[in-house]
Design goal:
GO molecular function: indolepyruvate ferredoxin oxidoreductase activity
Strand content: 15-25%
Low-confidence stretches: 1-5
InterPro entries: IorB_Oxidoreductase (IPR052198), Pyrv/ketoisovalerate_OxRed_cat (IPR019752), Pyrv_flavodox_OxRed_cen (IPR002869)
Enzyme class: oxidoreductase
Largest sheet: 7 strands, mixed
Radius of gyration: 16 Å
Distance between the termini: 25 Å
CATH superfamily of one domain: Pyruvate-ferredoxin oxidoreductase, PFOR, domain III
Pfam family, one: POR
EC number: 1.2.7.8
Order of helices and strands: EHEEEEHEHHEHHHH
Number of helices: 8
Shape: globular
Mean pLDDT: 91
CATH class of one domain: Alpha Beta
CATH topology of one domain: Pyruvate-ferredoxin Oxidoreductase, domain 3
Number of strands: 7
């Protein structure tokens, strides 16, 4: 049994529709419930169809009264796309950890030539004093067997920083993903987990 923490912790997941944010948030919430935390998850905000901006908030602790996270209050941000990472970077609290997929998905104004996609987003985020782990989750997911498992690679990165046994995460993945993809998703999770747990990444 995992001892329940007394203070509430906050995790923000951001990206665009079609990146598996809903599935990742569901797995995360199931893991936290299994670890006997009180958990509140916001409804998905934004346009969850492919290409639309999406965010969801997960809060856990001994007792949680609201699912909403204020600016500068998230211990962890899991960003599935670079522009969305920059957009939500002010929500990370001082000393928090930011995990960002290096994938770029151009929004409609950029595709129409009415705006430009920002360059050097990782430098812009680090320039705010943020502890950023930039991960090419798409390529790592392909190594696991499917690019669609990039969301689980990122979840593995997050899991390595949390005090919950890897087996609890495996169980939640098995419950949530299609049976034929369980092995691929477990491999993807392990790749992310092992990447973040290396000594080179210091929290």
């Amino acid at each position: 049994m995992i001892s329940v923490i007394s203070d509430v912790k906050n995790i923000l997941l951001v990206g665009v529709g079609g990146q598996g944010i809903v599935l990742a948030a569901d797995v995360l919430s199931q893991v936290l419930v299994s670890a006997e935390y009180d958990v509140k998850m916001s409804e998905i905000h934004g346009m969850s169809q492919r290409g639309g901006s999406v965010n969801t908030m997960v809060r856990f602790g001994s007792k949680v009264f609201s699912p909403l996270i204020d600016k500068a209050k998230a211990e962890y941000i899991l960003a599935f796309e670079q522009l969305e990472a920059l957009r939500w970077s002010d929500y990370l609290k001082p000393g928090g950890v930011f995990i960002m997929n290096t994938q770029k998905i151009e929004p409609l104004p950029v595709l129409l030539g009415k705006a430009r996609y920002p360059q050097n987003i990782d430098e812009l985020i680090r320039g705010k004093g943020i502890n950023l782990l930039a991960v090419d989750a798409d390529s790592l997911a392909e190594e696991a067997g499917s690019k669609k498992a990039a969301n689980i690679v990122l979840l593995g990165c997050l899991a390595a920083l949390m005090p919950i046994d890897r087996g609890v995460w495996y169980a939640a993945i098995e419950r949530r993903v299609p049976p034929k993809t369980v092995d691929i998703n477990k491999r993807a999770f392990d790749i992310g987990y092992d990447l973040t747990s290396k000594p080179a990444f210091i929290v």
